[in-house]
Amino acid sequence: MHPLRRAVPLALAVGLVAVSPAAASAKAGRAPVARASGGAPAGPPTYPGLVNSRLVRTQKALDRAVNYADDGDTTKAISSLYSARLQVKLAWRAGKYVIQHAPPPPPPAGLARSRTRIPVRVKARSQRKRARAHKSGAAPVSGSTVADQYTTAGGVLDMQHTVAQTALGMIDMAHGKFRDSLSRTIFTALDQRDAAVAYIHSIDTPPPPPAGLARASGAPVATSNWSAIMPPIAGEVDDEINQIEGALGLSTTIGVGIRRTLQDAEFQAVKTQRTINAYWPPAPPAG
Fold it and tell me: What is the per-residue DSSP string for 212-233?
């Protein structure tokens, strides 16, 4: 593990804080989104309160960190990053609890699934403003508006991505204790995501195929509910990799320690992406 994850020598690059597009969107108050599986309920589903409260607090802590950094108050930015790290850890702990205590899924009616992206619930008014659903082939299901364990886990993974990407966008010109805090924030998010991927894979069991479906060569085989949630996460990881490569390629003033931190983060992200693609291969292109 690179020493910048814990402590960094003080003699590194000095500069102003640069805020990434991800950080800018966080500053604008955009709610993180998750992938829902299943049909379209009566209204926009929301995460279970146990998880939702942690996601909301993580996002607000990130917003504060960006605002304080923009104002040059790195002391308060560091405090806000600590809160973001704590809340994103608690979000995964709560998400894992939801997974472990979820009711058993109903028997599959078929292999087709729809996916919906839903916002984190903050307040009723904000929810109405921020609700954005993208639906395809939805089949009616129960009228519950509480997200299932798959959607909830997807929301936590999305937030881990948001935390990592926001910190990545701020570290390239940071220095001192603020730089160290950003480094810890990056690797906290990456490590938490790796733990989530490993746990989800450990419990992932594909459902039995529908009656009469042969397992002959070339015949469709039933897939697990997680197979609809996890492949898009690999796309988020790819975006982080591109962000790191861009930061390394565009800046000529990054100090040696920060460069090594970004390279370590890229190495970990590449391994995560390969792991997700191996466990949940993306669907082949149609046609």
Answer: T----TTS-----GGGGTSHHH
Q: Which amino acid is at 61?
A: A
| DSSP label of 43 | S
pLDDT digits (tens, 9 = 90+) for 152-211: 999 999 999 999 999 999 998 899 999 999 999 999 999 999 999 999 999 997 666 555
Residue 46 forms beta bridges with which residues? Answer: 146
Low-confidence residues in the chain, pLDDT < 50 = 2-42, 111-117, 122-142, 214, 216-217, 219-221
Q: What is the four-CA torsion angle of 13, 180, 187, 122, rounded to 10 degrees?
A: -110
> 212: which DSSP letter?
T
- Please give the structure tokens belonging to residue 279: 């466990």
- Three-point CA angle 182, 254, 237, nearest 5°: 55
Task: Name the pTM for this structure.
Answer: 0.71
Contact in structure between 169 and 56 (CB atoms under 8 Å):
no
